[in-house]
């Protein structure tokens, strides 16, 4: 029965429907129940609210230790909170000596259209809570959108 309930909860999460734990409308998703979708680059997304490809969304995001993204832009603003690991988010013109390392509990905000790169600089994976105010895209600088 527990397996069936977890499968149903995962289905609701993937379709963006709320999983309510009680009659008062409180929605709870224990960490072990998160459903992670891993990209070919190794970045994992666990949907919390919304479909990231269609609309604004909230998700847990997990990056492998040492991952460095190419410089890119996004069409939507990003708002994040580091849960674990250590990350750097910078524009292309910041010298490595000037990079600020963010740790658990630190907040970051990246405006839509700002060319930047992100890196997980810890020896363990980085996990963030992410809200994006529009649909997900990832456009490396120098490329054009289809």
UniProtKB/TrEMBL annotation:
UniProt KW Phosphoprotein keyword: no
The entry's keywords: Signal
Family annotation (InterPro entries): Cupin_2, RmlC-like_jellyroll, RmlC_Cupin_sf
Signal peptide per UniProt: 1-23
Claim: Signal is one of the keywords in the record: yes
SUPFAM superfamilies, alphabetized: RmlC-like cupins (SSF51182)
Domain Cupin type-2, chain residue ranges per copy: 60-127
Residues that span the membrane, as ranges: none
Entry protein name: Cupin domain-containing protein
Species assigned in the record: Roseibium sediminicola
């Amino acid at each position: 029965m527990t397996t069936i309930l977890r499968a149903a909860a995962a289905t609701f999460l993937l379709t963006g429907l709320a999983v309510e734990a009680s009659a008062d409308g409180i929605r709870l998703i224990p960490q072990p129940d998160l459903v992670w979708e891993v990209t070919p680059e190794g970045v994992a997304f666990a949907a919390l609210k919304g479909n990231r490809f269609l609309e604004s969304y909230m998700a847990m995001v997990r990056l492998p230790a040492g991952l460095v993204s190419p410089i890119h832009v996004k069409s939507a603003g990003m708002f994040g909170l580091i849960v674990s690991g250590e990350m750097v988010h910078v524009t292309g013109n910041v010298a490595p000596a000037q990079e600020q390392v963010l740790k658990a509990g630190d907040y970051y905000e990246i405006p839509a259209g700002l060319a930047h790169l992100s890196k997980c600089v810890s020896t363990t994976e980085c996990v963030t809570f992410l809200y994006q105010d529009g649909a997900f895209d990832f456009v490396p600088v120098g490329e054009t959108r289809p």
